C-alpha cells in the first residue's frame, strides 16, 4: 500500500500514526487483501482495511464477465457501507465505516475492527445454537430492510444470481435444470415481500461473540434486493444430510423473523402472508443455488444426492 493511502487512513481515523499489522486474508482471485492496522492517537486502537487492487489486465484484452462482476461488487460494497450499514441495528450488527476511498482503479475501505468490538471468534463448523445465531442475524437483517429499495446495490443480490452467471449456466450438463433456471429466477425476483439480502451468507462471513451466542456479519460485495430465502437457503440447504434438522432451523428463522417484523413494522406487514410466501420459496431458492453449483462445481453437484433429489422435486412442481 502506498504512503498516501496510509496517510489517508490516518486522517480518516484521526490517528497520529498508522502502522500496518497482520494480514488477515487475501481477496478472491488475487484482487487484494484484508489487513489490520494499529492506530496511535485515535479513539480506536485498531481498524480493518480492505484494499482492493485488481490484477493488471493486458491492454486490448477482450471483455471479461468475471472481472466486470468483481469490480461492480466492490462498487456495491462501498455503496453499502456509505449508505446502508449505519441503518443496521444491534441484532444485525455490521462493522462501522470509518472511511472509503476509490482512486486509480483501487478501492480502500477502513472499517471498525469487530474483534475489538466483541466479536473475535470465527467458525469453520457451527453448533446448532451457533447456526441459530446466524439465522437470528439474517431474520433481523431481512426485517430491517423489508420493502427498502436497494439503491446503489445489486438490483438482484447474491453472487450466484442468474443474470451475472452466463458462463456457469452454459456449462451446466443438467438440461432440465438449465431450462428451468429462468423460471426459478423469476419466481424469486417477483416475490411480493422483497428485502435486501446479504448475498454471501456463509459461516465464514459471520464473526462470533465469545461463546457463540451473537454474531456480526462482514463481506457485502453481493448485497442487493431479493427474497430473504436466498440467504437462508445458502446457509442451510443440504448442509446437514438431515431434513428434520434443516426444518428445525428454518422454523427458528421464521420465529425470529416474525418477532423482528412485528417490532419494526407492526400491523403494516401481513406476517402470515410473508411467512407463507417465503416458506414456499425456500426450496426454489435452494434449487436456484444448485443451478449455479451445477455449472461452477460439477463434481460437487454430481455427488450431492440431497441436492439432486431436491432439484428433481422442485422441477416436478414447475412442470
Structure characterization notes:
Helices cover 45% and strands 16% of the residues. The protein contains 10 helices and 9 strands. It is globular, with a radius of gyration of 20 Å. The protein folds into 2 domains: 3-111, Phosphorylase Kinase, domain 1 (2-Layer Sandwich), CATH 3.30.200.20; 128-318, Aminoglycoside 3'-phosphotransferase, Chain: A, domain 2. With 319 residues, the protein is α+β, with helices and mostly antiparallel strands.
Précis, in short:
The chain is α+β, with helices and mostly antiparallel strands and 319 residues long. It is 45% helix and 16% strand. A hairpin with a 2-residue loop joins strand 4 (97-103) and strand 5 (106-111).
Question: What's the overall geometry?
Answer: globular
Quote the distance from N terminus to C terminus: 55 Å
CATH architecture of the largest domain: Alpha-Beta Complex
Instruction: Give average pLDDT, whole number.
Output: 94
Summed up, the helix count is 10
Number of domains: 2
**SSE order:** HEEEHEEHHHEEEEHHHHH
Main-sheet strand order equals: 1-2-3-5-4
The CATH topology assignment of the largest domain is Aminoglycoside 3'-phosphotransferase, Chain: A, domain 2
Major sheet details:
5 strands, antiparallel
Radius of gyration: 20 Å
Overall structural class, as computed from helix and strand content, comes to alpha+beta
Strand and helix layout:
Blueprint: H1 3-13, E1 17-26, E2 32-40, E3 46-52, H2 65-84, E4 97-103, E5 106-111, H3 128-144, H4 166-170, H5 175-189, E6 195-197, E7 206-208, E8 215-217, E9 224-226, H6 229-236, H7 243-265, H8 271-296, H9 298-302, H10 305-318
Antiparallel strand pairs: 1-2, 2-3, 3-5, 4-5, 6-9, 7-8
